[in-house]
Design a protein that fits this description.
By secondary structure, the chain is an all-alpha fold. It is built from 11 helices and no strands. 83% of the residues lie in helices and 0% in strands.
Length: 237
């Protein structure tokens, strides 16, 4: 677990500029624009805000999937001991965008249904499918093949994977709580400052979670197949 944590923060540190640009453009900006636009539309006519919400939600979903694909690619490339340029991350992200959209929708629906069934099934699916998105992006597998690949990779390591997901989720909750407390302390509980805080926190969650699942995928694949950086590099050629 400690090695995975070190690798996650190491990847974030070494790629801070590239990841910051991608997160700002694909994570923060769309959410901030949605928040500002919704406030304006609602102030003009509450009814006019309804169709805006559906259109904007679709745009945010697309941008979030694109951000995840670009970060996953860049993080795994980093774990190989190489660097992925901003242009290469975007190229690979766009190439896998549509399949990742399908995978994300299926995963979200399954987790929601699993969560409604006394929570535990949702947690089980989250662990089983933790490496599905990286498998789709890195190995260029299909949607259902990526789910199957993740199930195979996590076999024998599901409790450690659950521990990692729980630890990073707890860290995220602590950071989110800190942002809320800071906003309340400064009186910025409403208005455009709150919009910016919400956009920043959600973009940050997407960034960190993408690096986390990319690192878990790399560790699981190495454990099962004994692949080092040199062998895994063939997946990008």
């Amino acid at each position: 677990m400690a090695r995975v944590v070190r690798r996650v923060f190491g990847a974030l540190r070494r790629n801070c500029v590239t990841f910051a640009v991608l997160t700002a453009a694909l994570g923060f900006a769309p959410r901030a624009l949605f928040g500002v636009g919704f406030r304006y539309a609602y102030s003009v006519s509450p009814g006019a805000a309804v169709p805006y919400v559906f259109v904007a939600a679709g745009a945010i979903l697309v941008s979030a999937c694109l951000l995840q694909a670009t970060i996953v690619y860049g993080a795994v490339r980093d774990l190989q001991g190489q660097r992925a340029s901003l242009a290469r991350c975007l190229t690979e992200g766009f190439a896998r965008l549509l399949p990742l959209l399908g995978l994300s929708l299926i995963l979200a629906l399954a987790l929601i249904l699993g969560g409604l069934l006394m929570v535990v099934p949702g947690l089980v699916l989250a662990v089983l499918w933790v490496a599905a998105a990286p498998a789709l992006v890195i190995e260029r597998r299909g949607v259902f093949a990526s789910f199957q690949r993740s199930v195979r990779l996590t076999r024998g390591n599901r409790w450690p994977v659950f521990g990692l997901l729980a630890a990073f989720s707890l860290m995220g909750l602590v950071c989110w709580f800190g942002l809320i407390v800071g906003a309340v302390a400064t009186g910025a509980t409403w208005g455009y400052v709150r919009v910016a805080i919400a956009a920043f926190s959600m973009a940050g969650v997407t960034l960190v979670s993408s690096v986390v699942v990319a690192t878990i995928y790399y560790e699981l694949r190495t454990a099962w197949e004994g692949e080092g950086a040199e062998t895994l590099a063939a997946a990008f050629d």
